Amino acid sequence: MWTTKTFLTKTKRGNIIKIVREHYLRDDLLCGSAACNTCPHKDDEFVLDGKPESICSLYSYPHYLILDTNVVLHQIDVLEEDALSNVIILQTVLEEVKHQNTAIYQRLLEIIANKKRKFYSFVNEHHKDTYIERNPGEKQNDRNDRAIRKAAAWYETHLSINSVVGQFPKIVLLTDDENNRKIAQEEGIVCCSIKDYVENVTGFIGLLDKLSKNVAPEACSKDALYPAHLTPAQIHEGIRGGKLHQGTFRASRDNFLEGTAVINGFEKPILLQGHSGINRAVDGDSIAVEIFPEEEWRRPMDIVLEDKADDDPGDQLEEEAVLLKNTKPVEKGDDEITPTGRVVGIIRRKWRQYCGILMKSKFPGATRHLFVPAEKRIPRVRIETRQSDVLASQRILVALDSWPRNSRYPLGHFVRALGKIGDKNAENEVILLEHDVPHARFSEAVLACLPPNDWTIPEEEIKKRVDLRSECICSVDPPGCTDIDDALHAKALPGNTEDGLKRYEVGVHIADVTHFVRPNTALDKEAANRSTTVYLVGRRIDMVPDLLSSNLCSLRGGEERLAFSCVWEVDENANILHTKFHKSVIKSAAAMTYEEAQIAIDDKSRNDAIVSSLRILNALAKKLNRKRLDNGALSLSSPEIRFQIDSETHDPVEVQAKKILDTNSMVEEFMLLANISVAQRLAAEFPQCALLRRHPAPPPANFHTFLKAAKQQGFDLDVSTNKAFSKSLDAAVIPGRPFFNTLLRIMATRCMQQAQYFSSGSKTVEEYYHYGLACPIYTHFTSPIRRYADVIVHRLLAASIGCDVTHATLLDTKVANSVCDNLNYRHRQAQYAGRASVTMNTHILFNKRVEVELASVLAVKRNAVHVLIPKYGLEGPLYLPSDKFTYNEEEHIQTCGDIVLKTFDELTVRLSLDSSNLQHRKLVFELVKPHIPGFSVDIMEVEDSKAETEKDQKKRKEETPAKSSKKSKKK
């Protein structure tokens, strides 16, 4: 049978149209219960047990659970535990969850797919006995509650009539809606809240800890600590009227009483200060902001301030005196004036699960404790657990539930333990989870898309391609690299140009990943979700399975591989005469490290084909680099380090700044050239959907502090254009301080905005510009093994030269924009994860180790100077006592007698590790020189601490051989 659904909708022109849709109803849909003797089930269609065992003391009889939507949305962590089984998920609930939260919807689907869990999905919206129409004037939510009750009542009747067992399973409806429970009870349906049910479950320790503390945030007005949030309707009206603004909240890493809101139309982020100004916003939330009048605008606080309470301070907020003391209203014309405002409402929470440690209550037997997140931007969280003795030594995962007005901290619940604090696997897991890096094993569906392990290139595929196996092609990569994306070749061509210049052929050959990763397959969807390979210290999280990343797609030396080639004809001045693209087959003559390639180039006794190719490439690369710099490209810098890893323990044993050789620049120049050439081709062929990469020019406000610091060193930098800026940086040199110019470039990098992927149809041609590279158009083509952006670019390029066909999603601008959003997010998170891994390994390295090194001042704060150790690329705060130092907030300098500390100054510091706070172990920087009596570390103390450290290291080394021999005997 069928029924009809009628909708009235308004068109863009304002016309009202009626839409009628047929809705088919059936009477042969299965109930899924093994207790039923009527529904024509097959053996594998019985999901629910015939006589389920009750685990809840409230109900001694066998029963099935039916859940309403809010139970699924708020209690998914409880549902993922093995405790609850024989659960009926109605189609009404499934569709509501999908509409409200896709992440929870996916988690629910995974539970339903696990046959051991016995979750049955019942299509109540298409069953003739459970489908209901929406009544006139009835809210959709009320209609759905009624549909859930109707299905629960039907199941109860259906099983009582058609059961094959003596005592048929009953139905228990779980709902936290008090009104829904009241109506259900009046209708004769057994129901209770999820909290009551779980509290009476026996045999599952820790299940109660996972209950969500979902308290209505504005309901708790008693003893309120925070201002009430506006309602959604008030927020909408305020934004529409221009009184309020929508933005994204970003908490400060250095000051828990400060944050900012990024709002369109404002050059600077809006400053939010104090508990009431931040008003329960959490980093990442979409918020409504009221901006104060200009006379109330302030400077950000020049202070490092942490929430250091050793125990739960209760529901009280510290006085805001520290705020008033460290921030002052600014006068008009001050270049550091910052628009200031306050959070008046939450538009959308961006909460996720957070990693951290449990701070046990000091009261014996207490169940309420504080959770300290690993991410400093996230506030502490109150959770309830009866496992505090066990969890205190573990890294744990916690979910946020709500933040009532009368609670200093948000409320949350325990999700799971990750492992012991300090265990390297657990710490790596924390990094991956904190940065939302997909790192689960590749699914069977993904692995099924791969070719066999012994796959070789079919002869018919070779015939379709340009055969370059005879060319002298080689790759140049970092040591230990197994996912080799790119290889190069160069050779002289006969004859000269019309101007009498020598001619060369130069080729960049990129792994043809798209031959194996076909559109819309499980492999493609997984790669699109991951978007990038993530590099941690000693570990790599691949975008595609290892068979492709380290084998079939990796351009290893001496092996035939499929490639996508970009080949130029150039003259000796690196001017491009002709460009061509084609799919190819190559056989790399050598896979070299940067250092090996550099040695080969410098070895005058070598004149073989590989070295000849490298020398041509190196000479042309220098000319390309000069052209880019003359055009205004910025040569910036960032502190990069490389760890030496112990082969047995996998712990770092030494760290040093990365060396940059000519061969690094050689490879970079030709990768840049290939990316630019491909971008030009794609923009011409696909003006609406080409995937490109832009780098917006930084707003002038970003440079204020940087320019002031440079002026203190005697340099007036011109940042009016990237070309002028590049020339200024080149000229800013201090004789005798070779690192100064590098430091200046490191600081300049931090003034930049992030580069972004975008779809060509979403921006004007002028917005395509890449500020850092000083080029009008750019993309990523050269690393498809580790970047999904390059996979899309390969597909577009292949379609443009007729090597492959286009497909619908490739040309869909909405899909392209969505892909770019995910690419930008994953790329940013991968960078943060890599930095966190470096920090973790640095802490391991400096455990029981003390070093004295030269440091450079990166920034001057009210209570600290931020320093960088060039040798290690490490940075952090060196705290200064207020009784010895005077802070000049206009010039950003610290003074102690005749000693003045300012940005870019050189200091000598002692570097050690403070492990007193397990959650936030940190490097401690102590001043050695200049010497300040009563503050600087005494030089004799430095020598003694170093001698003690070296003694400990020697002792550990002496013990290592014995441990190694013991291991070998076990083998």
TrEMBL record:
It is found in: Cytoplasm; Nucleus, Nucleolus. Its cofactor is Mg(2+). Residues 465-803 form the RNB domain. Keywords: Cytoplasm, Endonuclease, Exonuclease, Exosome, Hydrolase, Nuclease, Nucleus, RNA-binding, rRNA processing. Residues 63-182 form the PIN domain. The keyword rRNA processing applies. Residues 943-971 are annotated as: Disordered. Residues 943-961 have a biased composition (Basic and acidic residues). One of its GO terms (cellular component) is nuclear exosome (RNase complex). GO terms for molecular function: 3'-5'-RNA exonuclease activity; endonuclease activity; RNA binding. PROSITE patterns: RIBONUCLEASE_II. Pfam families: OB_Dis3 (PF17849), PIN_4 (PF13638), RNB (PF00773), Rrp44_CSD1 (PF17216). Belongs to the RNR ribonuclease family. This is Protein DIS3 homolog. The gene is LOC118268200.
